[in-house]
Amino acid sequence: MLALAAALLLAQADAPPAEAASRRYTIERIELSGLSRTREAAVRRLLAVSEGHVLDEEAVQVSRWKLLQVGWYSRVETRLTRGSERGLVVLVFSLTERNTLIVSDLVLGSTPPQPVYGGLGLSQQNFLGRGLGLSGAFVYGGSPADRPLDPPRFALKGAFFAPDIDLAPGIDRLVAGATLLWLRGEELTCADPSCRDFRGHYGDAPRLRYERLGGEAVVGIRPGPFERLFAGVRVERVQGRLVDDGTAAGPRPALLLGDRLLTALTGTYDRDTRDDFFFTRSGTRFSAQVTFASPAFGGDYEYSRWLLQAETAFALPRGHALRLAGTAGATQGAAPFFDRFYAADWAYFSLGPALGRALELNFSADSRYDAILAMLGAEYGVPLWSGGGFFHRGVLALGARGLYSGAYARAPRTRLSRTPWSADVALRLDTPVGSFNLSLGYALDVFQ
Q1: pLDDT digit string (tens) for 279-308?
Q2: Residue 90 CB neighbour total at 10 angstroms
């Protein structure tokens, strides 16, 4: 962005230098150029500046960051032009639109209990040009290995989000959303995490078969330009039963058997000032989430879940960047296993039997879920290219993470892998249909 002070001097060239330097300029008009897919009202709701107000360089910069963060534009530039009279300026936002229908999830994997599974997720970040978010994803694994007559394993998820709702004049900071989930899965309950006694015939292994159907509705406010505060209600019907075929089984994931109801209240605070989701060079993100489930809300579960996540980035010479991230989580009470922490979800790879889940479905033999989680990580990013073409940008990412998880407070580390440390080398690609990650760590998990 051109320096506003210099632009103002050009816009008011007929004013004496001393007068131009001390004058406060008023925004006569805001112009948006480059719009073809987005309604102008949806863009104006994101701006921290308004027509008729005094020009504020910081507010202009905040507006630019917010427009870049929503993912509708690949470039946002601002400039000033002369207004209709002295003291007035026209603020112009030049926008370069990008494709907002993107691939959000692309899953393909193989494990001994599930030889092949895969899935796809699509996200429309600017539905109908109104700034609405609409997404859907699925993962399908079919019937488990050696059990062709068993129900197939799958997950379906859909979400809708409205980032700006205007109910009335002065009430324009509301946000709302809803998520729906239908999932049918199985967790092996062998005496050891790798189910070594059932290798080659996993169909005979004892298991917990379950199904989840429900969703969550949230409503909130935007306390600041980069903040969101949500409150929500979550309702799920959860069915579970054991299948052991007379085989001695080991510990099973926490779940109330039979047909049960989970009802919970949720709260989320999120603050995000990152300059670029694909390759962050500056800014931070902090997220705090809490879930309270209780029979007092009409359900069968009673527990709480707490999760804190933080990330910050530092710009380095030659366009490189260093990103630091941390996570801390805990559950209290009789939380179902899917609201506890599966350590392989938080590591780059797991050298043991565990494999990161796909859309909350576990296709590996390891069914240990923890009540305590802590993770620290660092990632060094090297930009490889930036320009036109389908592969618009490429980044080489070198990362390392340290992970702690435990079945209960002050418990020793759960041995979900041979080491709590993991590392990754990945090529990340920014394309018109989404960002893709070619990860060595993921390949180690899938093909070990």
Answers
A1: 999 999 999 999 999 999 999 999 999 999
A2: 17
